[in-house]
Design goal:
The structure is a single chain. The chain is of the alpha+beta class. The chain has one domain (3-185): NADH Oxidase, CATH 3.40.109. It has helices at 3-9, 24-34, 54-62, 69-72, 91-100, 106-117, 121-145, 158-164, 197-200, and strands at 46-51, 75-82, 149-153, 171-180. Bound molecules: flavin mononucleotide (FMN).
Length: 203
């Protein structure tokens, strides 16, 4: 598939085939693709909760505006953005530091990330969500490239999801992503209106 075909093929589909699973192997391949996404200072402040169990999906649906796709799709991802992903001692930051940086860079590195992402709660929130959003987008294109369909959702009760899935305070949930196959017999509606290039570019 060309990139353009992947781009056109990706749609937020509403009807998933509940009888067609997504293997763990395929899901892991797509997650590995998405892990190649860019991130602020390569801090990769994203994590996933993978929800497959029908009872857990029903619990998720109950706090996700009762959206049927949450239980119809074989897999629903809870995307997490780590608001503390720029702080000293954060596990992912420390791994990045060990793998990619030298000790002499540590003070500069921590000072710079604290100045950028630690200067207000909004900055930390934006840090988590922009990076997790890029990861989520890559995930959806990678899933499209591998023949799957997805649906991103922010129609959910954030605190309800946090409570139901024991999500620690440092994580924000930018979206859920339903993953699976299109239900047979469903025709996908034509792509909805998009802004033109001229509308997107501001003077
Ligand atoms: C962050 C985000 C949250 C969304 N939340 C929902 C949702 O909760 N429920 C829903 O039906 N669609 C949701 N959508 C899907 C959008 O309505 C859809 O992407 C948009 O209409 C464009 O259609 P397309 O993705 O098929 O091109 C969401 C999309 C994004 C990117």
């Amino acid at each position: 598939m060309t990139f353009n075909e992947i781009l056109e093929r990706r749609r937020a589909i509403n009807f998933f085939d509940p009888d067609r699973d997504v293997s763990d192997e395929l899901l892991r391949e797509i997650i590995a693709d998405a892990a190649k996404s860019p991130s602020s200072f390569n801090l990769q402040p994203w994590k996933l909760k993978v929800v497959r169990d029908p009872e857990r999906k029903a619990a998720l649906r109950a706090v996700a505006s009762d959206q049927p796709k949450v239980t119809e799709a074989p897999v629903v991802l809870i995307v997490l953005g780590d608001r503390d992903g720029w702080k000293e001692g954060n596990d992912t930051l420390e791994k990045h530091f060990r793998n990619n940086l030298v000790p002499e860079q540590r003070d500069w590195f921590l000072g710079t990330t604290a100045a950028l992402y630690g200067n207000s709660p909004e900055a930390g929130q934006a840090f988590a969500n922009k990076n997790a959003g890029l990861f989520a987008m890559s995930f959806m294109y990678a899933a499209s490239a591998r023949g799957l369909h997805t649906h991103p959702m922010d129609g959910f009760d954030h605190e309800g999801v946090r409570r139901e899935f024991n999500i620690p305070d440092n994580y924000w949930v930018p979206m859920l992503i339903a993953v699976g196959h299109l239900k047979p017999g469903i025709e996908i509606a034509p792509k909805a209106w998009r802004q033109s290039v001229d509308e997107i570019i501001l003077d």
